Amino acid sequence: GDGTDPPAPERVLFPPTFSVSEIKNKQRRHFMFLRWKQQQRKEKLALKKKRRKEREALGDKAPPKAIPKTIENQRVYDETTVDPNDEEVAFDEATDEFAPYFNRQTVPKILITTSDRPRGRTVRFCEQLATVIPNSHVYYRRGLALKRIIPQCIARDFTDLIVINEDRKIPNGLVLSHLPDGPTAHFRMSSVRLRKEIKRKGKEPTEHVPEVILNNFTTRLGHSIGRMFAALFPHDPQFIGRQVATFHNQRDYIFFRFHRYIFKSEKKVGIQELGPRFTLKLRSLQKGTFDSKFGEYEWIHKRREMDTSRRKFHL
């Protein structure tokens, strides 16, 4: 108190080499981790504000914004990436199995079926999927083999067959076969959400023909898969229904969403998800209709051989 005492040292919470993970008490460790994360966010926000002020001060002389590196924009180049002006690709698409649909010679008619004796969740998913795809019909298998179903579908003028497989009462696979000549795609299905499980969902979808959006199907294989999905829907969407079905490919995962858009004003548009939603991962593409024993495969996903790089994609 008389001024002769040395100044008190600054209080240090942790030594420079100390780690939060070394704290033995779980509650204390969690508390300190949250404080550390909060400090990180504050520093990041302060740096962001500083850079924005610097850019405003420089005006037109400010350097261009740096593009962040992502797995998508660092993608390994694929030689099968399609050029929109490629004459060979245009010729192939004009003569492939989907050409009658794109030439408006056929009208989509879809049969949706399941694995043998489906459970309640798979049944509800098929019923909701039928409300998304116009002119689709749901039939449940009773021990009937797919090889026997396909000739009956062709005789009844169905253009596509969708099979929903399940495991432990959960839908986990989808087989899409274009009739009468194929091809047939096998997908692994995950993240299935029915309508009642979606938060802030809109009212039940109407019977209007939806618009279809296909994103990021850039390779020859991706084009084939995108054309398979497009061939499920009639050509002329009814815009008055304001419904849109989206197949979005990202890192070879195909995310399906079904939305209704709402005009809030002349400039603002909102969207409501109607459901269902699910994610697909291509496992194989087979020539012709379904034949697990003697079928000829165009492409098979071999995980250990193909997934050597996180930046290598096939669709």
What report would you give on this structure?
- Residues 44-66 are annotated as: Disordered.
- This is Ribosome production factor 1.
- Residues 54-63 have a biased composition (Basic and acidic residues).
- InterPro entries: Brix, IMP4/RPF1.
- May be required for ribosome biogenesis.
- With 315 residues, the protein is an alpha+beta fold.
- It has 2 domains: 20-59; 76-307, 3-Layer(aba) Sandwich (Rossmann fold), CATH 3.40.50.10480.
- 27% of the residues lie in helices and 25% in strands.
- It is built from 7 helices and 11 strands.
- The chain has helices spanning 26-58, 87-95, 99-102, 120-132, 146-155, 220-230, 303-306; strands at 110-114, 136-138, 160-167, 170-178, 184-193, 211-215, 243-250, 253-263, 269-273, 277-286, 297-300.
- Strands 1, 2, 3, 4, 5, 6, 7, 8, 9, 10 and 11 form an 11-stranded mixed sheet that branches.
- The mean pLDDT is 87.
Regions with little confidence, pLDDT below 50 for 5+ residues: none
User: Could you give a short account of the major beta sheet?
Assistant: 11 strands, mixed
Shape: globular
Structural class: alpha+beta
CATH superfamily of the largest domain: Brix domain
Count of helices? 7
CATH fold call of the largest domain: Rossmann fold
Q: Write down the Rg.
A: 27 Å
- Binned strand content: 15-25%
What percent of the residues sit in helical stretches (DSSP H or I)? Answer: 25-40%
What is the β-strand count? 11
Mean pLDDT: 87
GO biological process, one term: maturation of LSU-rRNA
Pfam family, one: Brix
GO cellular component, one term: preribosome, large subunit precursor
Function: May be required for ribosome biogenesis.
